Fold:
Amino acid sequence: MDRKISFHRPVFEESAKLARIYSLRDNRTCDSTVLDTYIWKDLYNTQIYIEDEAALILMHDEKGYFAAMPYCREEKLSEYFGLLKDYFNEELKSPLRIALADEEALNSLNLFDDNNFVVEEESDLKDYLYDAEELRKLPGKKFQKKRNLINKFMKDYEGRWEYKTLCCVDEYFLEEFMKKWVEIRLSEGVDSEATLIIEKDGVIDMLRNCDKVTFRIGGIFIDEVLEAFAIGSYNSREKMVVVSIEKGNSDIPGIYQVMNQQFLLNSYEDAQIVNREDDMGLEGLRHAKESYNPIGFARKYRVYQKCI
Structure:
């Protein structure tokens, strides 16, 4: 490898530059914005290599090192894919492994027909895409149940609820909500404690650095208590908002439906597409996402180099 590259832990001061690089080529996956990179950086021990118009993302799991598809202009994709492959082969002494590769990049690199690589769809991790205007207005019979839940919520909590756009000074409300969320999920045995704590710390870390990272947070308050919130970021190239996190008090009927609609109405009124990420293969989450009538999917793939 003629070109030496060095990875480092992502810092918030680089997020604006990284966000610009992420938008240099077509990509409708949730990984086309930087929010998930920072929220989950501790879970995957994320490291980055960054140039003026390119970035490589290196991660680690129980199987070893893996990478994201290179972020750069499409015409430079082959160059940086080769650079990444050389780094794995020569520095890590390992075949290249890429997770969550977007379909646009795979087609550009002709990897579906390249005998040197195995490409497999990660079907449980495809992102759900929606028409943003439909989610704002919830028109017609197909959204009748959503409208009914919202109307019931409005009636039950009339004069007691409020939507607020949150910022750095609202850290207390998010921290208290996330503490309760972790306790509830642990008691239900749904998630591992490590993952829940990493997510909680990632959300709080983002809020503490909201002057450096471009994102928006909206919350639903009932009797001045935060009962639901959503965090999103915007892909201007695709005119798409990516909703990275949405949480609510499931004991309150309609809270998620109200949160979903209000967030788009108040924070992303110009977005044309909504990416609500994947369902992780969970049946309940899949039914919830399907109930909003997706217009398509951003499919993602695993890429394995057969040998060095």
About this structure: The longest strand covers residues 225-235. The chain has a mean pLDDT of 94. Residues 217 and 265 are 13 Å apart (CA to CA).
